[in-house]
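Folded chain entry
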Amino acid sequence: MSAQQTVTVGRRGLTPAEVVAVARHGAPVTIDTEALAGVAQSRARIEALADDSVPHYGVSTGFGALATTFISPDRRAQLQASLIRSHAAGTGAEVEIEVVRALHLLRLRTLVSGRTGVRPIVVETYAAMLNAGITPIVREYGSLGCSGDLAPLSHIALAAMGEGDVRVAGVKLTAAEALNAAGIEPLVLREKEGLALINGTDGMLGMLVLALHDLENLLEVADLSAAISIESQLGTDAVFAQDLMDLRPQLGQSQSAANLRTYLNPSPMVQSHKGPEDTRVQDAYSLRCSPQVHGAARDTATHAALIAGRELQSVVDNPVVTLDGRVESNGNFHGAPVAYVLDFLAIAIADLASISERRTDRALDKARSHGLPPFLADEVGVDSGLMIAQYAAAGIVSELKRLAVPASVDSIPSSAMQEDHVSMGWAAARKLRRGIDGLARVLAIELLTGTRALDLRAPLQPGPATGAVRELIRTEVAGPGPDRFLSPDMEAITEMVISGQVLAAARGAIN
């Protein structure tokens, strides 16, 4: 959807496209009026319980291990403010603005559900902050992914109270200054509202949605870069035939193979060695098995998107106000469903990068590249060619393999053993973001290598799609020749990959 379109937040939940539009592109939000009426209705139930002599968790008691401590009515505003101040305990580097906006938006969505018991003014304040471009500063460490992303969400709530620091258009301000400039009155929290603002999986979910959006592009770029490697290394496209894919009906594999057939057909370079003079029986695994590996990653992303879609329709808070007016404790804040797929994606990304790096390495090895010069160098011995570009890819792949170690299998008890099993989903999401960046860079190095190899096959010519990608890259990166400063070339192609330019060039040539 367009960044200019307004996203309406209501009871129906949000779509991934809406999350990306608000988080990454600054799309404005509005609150569904019917949903806002439901918020007021559930708040009336909380206020009735606040006057009850029987303790109710989060309304008239302390939190976590202090849940049995009754709090008198005159201390409850202080209780809510103290909860936010004490839980805004993030440390480390600032989290990216798009992640903070996703976190903020997804908490707003749960508040609008009418199941958390907050006042309408809380909902309206959160929406106004998003629309004013006020981004609370959230720190890297602090969430265990159980009882929600407590510390990150507390930094959002703290800013809504007019405390802590924020960024507006990249400029660091105090929250009080930013709210005042935007004409937003700081919140004074009442019963239950502190818990409602911080008890959710919104940070890890927001990062999952953003990662899946980016991975949709990178998965097809992986097919495209593989096609360029296969073509330039004089590989065959016969192994990607649909009838061969039908023998193993894995959906992602079939889609990847279809992409490879499209990008390689028609390719004069592939056709040039299809005769009986070609004595090779079959290509190496990194070429031949590209659809199997890429397809498995696709299927993993499909499963992760299913979990994300369900979570985007969920109400995550504790306690919740049920449809019939009960206020009930629950465990829906546990991040396990999201944490598992975040870790699963990290494994898939590491393997995608790994097979890409292997294809790059084959192109640089004269013993395996079928006639290409060592390291694709101009003057062998004097020039090193793309030797160290492969080193960079190998270094990234090694890092991605370390990042593939699951975070969700770890658990460190907290809150005096009340919270004795946690998901570590926030940590899983943080390492996945690093993995997405690494994959884009490894694919860019394969494209750098593959397009230079295409040039070195002249007068043989590539197919329309792969040729269009080569021409795009040549607008920023020179072709074969004496050694040059490689880092800017690698950065330029990485930007082309991330921005979608590479994929658009290929698609434009076949449509």
Q: What stands out?
A: The first strand starts at residue 7 and ends at 9. The domain at 7-200 is CATH 1.10.275.10 (Fumarase C; Chain B, domain 1).
